[in-house]
């Protein structure tokens, strides 16, 4: 019985070995039958592009294009550009322009004669008040139009306070000759007028106080090119006390004084591009009425020509006295 069991186990072992051998043979045969393409990629997304190993490209002939471009009609050129997939060139060059400010003052305010000196109780002062009331209609219409574009706009005290700060900062930067930051407070039109003839000069300016509180006397809104492109201008009356002194390049004072303060009456025009989201109020100019007294002339320093002065002095001396004068050798 023991032998029969041993014989059965040996038979089972041989059967298992035969089974493994058959599996190996079948597996090897299956592997030998597989065929792999040499150009097959593991990502089939760009199969079509990978199959096109070589692309035929038609190189442009620039010399022929230059010769034939003069003879081609517009339709023929359009067809040729269309074949190449090129947009046709335009005969003109478009350049974008941005209008940042107006070039002048819109309907400039005419200050009443004697403003700041005539009392409102007098007859002349009462006439001035009546004339101002007649002109206020257009001013309030302009302010209403500004509020349509800026809902939070208020004349008093927000705008007046901001206008006075802009006025002080702009003049301080001008005195320091900070031309880079000056354009944040003045427009390009006012910038040219303010920096004119300040080279080789030293400016000392200081704001002391306001004699009268600043007030709005005039406002206008205008459009440029299109009706939607709106610019607003507001004229503010300043009656202040200031000191100004100007020195030439040699350090000699030519205008004003550092000690003596003077009352200054000015009508400053502020401008803003109200349809621009990033527009700001800036000084656009000043209105100088005709009745204001003329400014003091500037003392100009010149180099004296010694030879010319000597000749002029000799001509004024009589002939007899000239013979007695002995000039030193040069």
From TrEMBL:
Its main location: mitochondrion. InterPro entries: mtLSU_mL45, NTF2-like_dom_sf, Tim44-like_dom. GO terms for cellular component: mitochondrion; ribonucleoprotein complex; ribosome. Transmembrane segments: none annotated. Pfam families: Tim44. Keywords: Mitochondrion, Ribonucleoprotein, Ribosomal protein, Transit peptide. Residues 139-288 form the Tim44-like domain. It comes from the Eukaryota. It is found in: Mitochondrion. Belongs to the mitochondrion-specific ribosomal protein mL45 family. This is Large ribosomal subunit protein mL45. It comes from Sipha flava.
